[in-house]
Structure formats: C-alpha cells, structure tokens
Amino acid sequence: MPGPRKYLWKDDDGEVRWHDVPAPARGAPKPEGGRYFGANGWSTGLESDSASVHSSQVNEFREDAKKQGLTGVEFDKSGNVKFTSRDQRARYLRYRGFYDRDAGYGDPTPRNF
After folding, report:
1. How far is CA 31 from CA 24, 48, 104, in A?
2. What pLDDT digit, counting tens, does each position of 86-107 carry?
3. Exposed (0-12), middle (13-18) or buried (19+): which is 75, by Cβ within 10 Å?
4. For the chain, which has fewer Cβ within 10 Å, the N-terminal or C-terminal residue?
5. Residue 36: is its pLDDT beyond 60?
6. Residue 107's pLDDT is what?
7. How far apart are CA 74 and CA 16, in angstroms?
8. 88: burial class by Cβ within 10 Å (0-12, 13-18, 19+)?
9. How confident is the model at residue 5 (pLDDT cuts 50, 70, 90)?
10. Quick one: how many helices (H) and strands (E) in the chain?
C-alpha cells in the first residue's frame, strides 16, 4: 500500500522540501518569476516576445495602440509587449495581423482556415 501523498515546494527560508499539504499557506512568497498560473495567471499580465517591437519604435507603437483604444497593451523600454487581459491581447494581435497558432476559444486565428 502506498504511503501518504507528498508535495514539493519552497519554504519561506528558500529551501525546497517535501510537505503533506499541496500548496504553501497564504502569504507565502510568489513562485519564481513572480507569476501564478491557472485562475490567477493573468494577475501579472502576459508578456510576449513575438509581438514585441524594436526598442527604437516603442514610443511610436505606444501611441498607435493608444489611438486604437488598446488600453491593456504596454511596451517596456526594450520593446517587449505586455497584455493585461486576453481580450486586449486578442484585439492587439488581430489589429497587427498576428495570430495564435495554439489558439483557443476567443483567441486570434488566421482568417483563411
């Protein structure tokens, strides 16, 4: 008969240990990278390398996104784009003519499929 189920996660002191509970208690440090996945995956936004622009074009693309009403699209100084919601991501990708090859319901897809 197998023993009780064990879960591996990092303690507050930074050590990775086996535990009897599936997740750290509330208030525990965020996972590496500062992102939670699942229902809270969008809480920190989604950054896209493939939709990014050259660093010299950041101001131009910021203004263009603003003119199009894309309020949940942000560019950092290196040109990476960050989306605050799935809707804003879908709108921006459609506007730029991009699509998601692994698209799910509501994600931008090519019009010729």
Report:
1. 10, 20, 26
2. 888 888 988 888 887 777 777 7
3. buried
4. N
5. no
6. 72
7. 35
8. buried
9. confident
10. 2, 5
